[in-house]
Design brief:
By secondary structure, this protein is of the alpha/beta class. It contains ten helices and seven strands.
Amino acid sequence: MADYALTSIAIVALTLVMLVIWRRVTGPSSSVVRTAGRIALAVSLSLLVVGTGVYTLSKSRSLQTTGRLVRRVDTDRKLIALTFDDGPTPGRTEEVLSTLRTYEASATFYVTGQQSAQYPRQVREIIRAGDELGSHTYTHRKMYFIPDATVAEEIGRTDAVLRSAGYTGPITFRPPGCKRLLAAPLYLDRTGRTTVTWDLEPDSIPGIADDADAMVDYVVDNVRPGSIVLMHVMVDSRAASREALPRILQELSADGYTFVTVSDLLRSRRQSE
């Protein structure tokens, strides 16, 4: 709903600005200059409205032009999916896996194909731990305004790397920055791939992202059964995220939550239906 609200606000603001300018070029005179000004303003307003809508849609966490998108799962069970973007990263991956095992938690790692090819041992560690791997493209490229062939290469190459490492589970997809439009959703729909976004992103919010205490409080206060949480714990610069992770696990476990993979969360919804 936030995406729709932001789009509506932007369109209203742009419309008001254009109306002010419109009044400057309208009047009793029907000169060529005024007529040309009106046409130019009408075209500009149309382009701005369409452009704003397209941009908002391209990064929406809750809406996609085609194909299946999941932001959270509607369930009464206290299940939550922790998801980690980027990586794998030597040292960081092992640290995160150790933390998960301490709390008997499962998670989904949205890795890039490029880093997975560079660090296959860490990919195998994730597999051996029984956690889930997802695709975050091969080069961490934003998935909009690119041809279908590029989309297929970014996703297909990542799939190949993960499969060659021995991963046999489902591979859901998360676009970098949540950016995808036209070719990417069409490809994902055609290949039966689910786009997974999130409803909580504690280390992407200004004022919270560098404060472990604030991140823990944010997740604990806002989590719901079926939530999907995004964190960047495998990035070297995200020390606060790694500090927050065990505390999030501890507090939510004490509150009765079970940490599952994205696919387990999706299966739970289908079973409950």
